[in-house]
């Protein structure tokens, strides 16, 4: 399991969907990768997915 300190030190994998409970936002409502506040959201299979419109980072909320 990767902890938050390790993810800060390494590049964020934009192909991976991060779990919000394990990796909460560094700055609330902002993308951890590019600091954008512009997201698109979708719900699929009961899972709320938030994707940054600038860089594509995804988190399941």
Short note summarizing the structure:
The chain is mostly beta strands and 61 residues long. The protein has one helix and four strands, in the order H-E-E-E-E.
Task: Provide an overview of this structure.
The protein has one helix at residues 4-9; strands at 17-19, 39-44, 47-52, 58-60. A four-stranded mixed sheet has the order 1-4-3-2, with no helix packed on it. The chain is globular and about 30 Å long. The protein is mostly beta strands and 61 residues long. It is built from one helix and four strands; from the N terminus they run H-E-E-E-E.
Number of extended strands: 4
Task: Note the overall shape.
Answer: globular
Question: What proportion of the residues is helical, as a percent range?
Answer: under 10%
CA gyration radius, whole angstroms: 11 Å
- Strand line-up across the major sheet: 1-4-3-2
N-to-C SSE string, H for helix and E for strand: HEEEE
Number of helices: 1
> What is the residue-averaged pLDDT?
87
The low-confidence runs, each spanning 5 or more residues with pLDDT under 50, are none
Helix-strand category: mainly beta
Strand fraction: 25-35%
The separation of the N and C termini measures 18 Å
Biggest sheet statistics:
4 strands, mixed
List the helices and strands and how they pair.
Layout: H1 4-9, E1 17-19, E2 39-44, E3 47-52, E4 58-60
Parallel strand pairs: 1-4
Antiparallel strand pairs: 2-3, 3-4
């Amino acid at each position: 399991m990767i902890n938050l300190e390790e993810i800060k030190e390494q590049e964020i994998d934009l192909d991976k969907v991060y779990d919000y409970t394990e990796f909460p936002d560094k700055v609330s409502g902002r993308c951890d990768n590019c600091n954008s506040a512009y997201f698109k959201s979708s719900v699929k299979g009961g899972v709320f997915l938030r994707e940054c419109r600038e860089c594509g980072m995804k988190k399941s909320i």
